[in-house]
Amino acid sequence: MKFTEEHEWLESDGDIVxxxxxEYAAEQLGDIVFIELPDxxxxxxxxxxxxxxxxVKAASDILAPLDGExxxxxxxxxxxxxxxxxxxxxxxxxxxxxxxxxxxxxGLMSEDEYKKHIE
Amino acid sequence: MTELKKTALYDLHRSLGAKAIPFAGYKMxxxxxxxxxxxxxxxRKSAGLFDVSHMGQLVISSxxxxxxxxxxxxxxxxxxxxxxxxxxxxxxxxxxNKEGGLIDDLMISNRADHxxxxxxxxxxxxxxxxxxxxxxxxxxxxxxxxxxLIAIQGPQSEKILSSQIGELSSLTYLDVKNxxxxxxxxxxxxxGYTGQDGFEISLPNSLCEVFCKNILxxxxxxxxxxxxxxxxxxxxxxxxxGQDLNETITxxxxxxxxxxxxxxxxxxxxEGGFVGQKKILKQIEEQPYFKREAFFPDGKAPLxxxxxxxxxxxxxxxxxxxxxxxYSPSLERPISMGYLNYNKFNVDEPIxxxxxxxxxxxxxxxxxxxPTSFKRN
Lengths: 119, 377
Prior knowledge:
Chain A is of the alpha+beta class. In chain A, about 20% of the residues lie in helices and about 35% in strands. Chain B has helices at about 10-15, 35-45, 65-75, 125-135, 155-165, 205-215, 225-235, 275-285; strands at about 20-25, 25-30, 50, 55-60, 90-95, 100-110, 115-120, 140-145, 145-155, 175-180, 185-190, 200-205, 220-225, 290-295, 310, 320-330, 335-340, 350-355, 360-365.
C-alpha cells in the first residue's frame, strides 16, 4: 500500500490501483453521511477534486491521487457511508483507476513514511 | 489573531479527549471520542452535559429602583412581556434594532432581585454595550465573567442532576430556582437548547470542574460537544444567531411571533413602545413575504447554511437560502431550515438547492423535524 499527503491509500493490482482514505482521515472526518463518487470513465488529473464526502459537521473533497482514468466505483459506500468509518482500508474503498504513468506510484509514501507524516 | 479564550472546563475537556475548535473566540469542544452522531443520539435517549460557558451571562439590577422599574425599562428594548414574567420564571426573547432586525436572541429570568439574561457568545460584547448605552442610568448591567454555564439535557437529566443537588421534580419547563452546592449558589433553570427536557446551571467558575466531574460519574450521561448541540437544536427547529437570525431578519420573518406576547402587540395593554416596533407590529398584522421554512432535501446530500434556493434546476429564479442544514441523526436523513421569498415563489413550484454547481430538489415541510419534549405542567 502507498499513501498520499492527503490521507489516501492506494493498492495496486496490475495496471489498476484501488483508492480509499486512511483510518486517520476517517477518524478526523467523523461520522460520514454522504459520498458522491465520480463517473466511471472520467479522466482525472492529480489534485483534482473528484469525490465529495460529507460528515455530520462538514463537507470535504477527496483529490485524485495521480493522473489517470476511473475504471470502477464502490457504490456500497454511497448506499451506506458509515462503512467508511467502520472499515476505511478494507470494504470501504472509493474507486479504482488506471494510471497514466505507473511509475508515479513509487513516488508516494510507504506505510512507515505515512505514519511519520501523521504524527 | 488574538489568542482563543478558554472556559473553566478546558482542562476537563482535554482529559475527556475532546476535539477542540475555535468558536466565537473560544477554544471549544466540537465533539468527544464518541463522535457527533452517537453524542446526539445519547442525549436524546439518556442525557448529555454541555459546556456553554462561552455564552454571555448578564445580571441586570438596580440599587435604587424596583424590579418593576427595570422591567418597564427592558420593555423599551425587548418586544416581550417582561413585566408579566413572574418571579422564578424564564422566557425567550430578543433585542430588535430600529429596522426590526435582531441584535441578538436571549433567555431572560426573573430572579427576584435582578434579571438574569443569557446571550449568544458571538454577540455578548455587542449586547452588553447596547444595553449599557440604551437603558436607564439607574440600572446596572453586568456581564459576569466569574460564572460558568453548564447544560444538562435529555430524559435522564432530572434524575442525574437531582442526585447531586436535590429534588427537582417541582420545577417545570422555564422555572428557575437556586440550589446550594459546596457552599455556593447554583442558578438553575429548567430549560436548554436541545428541544428536550433539561436544565441550565450557572455556577462559579471555581466549582465548575468538580461539579461536572461529579455529574459525569453518574450512569446515563456523556459529555456532548458543540457539533451535536447544533444537530440537536436544528432537529427541533431552534434558531442559531448568525445563521438563522441576524440584523436584517425580523422575528416575524423568523417565525418567532409566538415569543411576542399579546400584551405587546397591537391592541394589547402595553402595545409597542419597543425598538423596532414599527416594522415588527406591521408584520404581525400583514404577514411577511419573507419567511423561515423547513425543508427535507429529497436526496442524501445535506444542504447546509449558505445554499441558495431556486424554483428551477438551472439557477434562474432565486427564491431563498438555507441558513442551517445538515444530517439529522434521529431521522437518519438530511434536514434544512432557511428563508423563502414568497414574492418570487409559489408553494406549488418545485424547490432546488444549489451545491457545487448541481441542483438538488427539496420538499417544504413543517418545523420541528423532531418533536420537543419539555416538562410542562
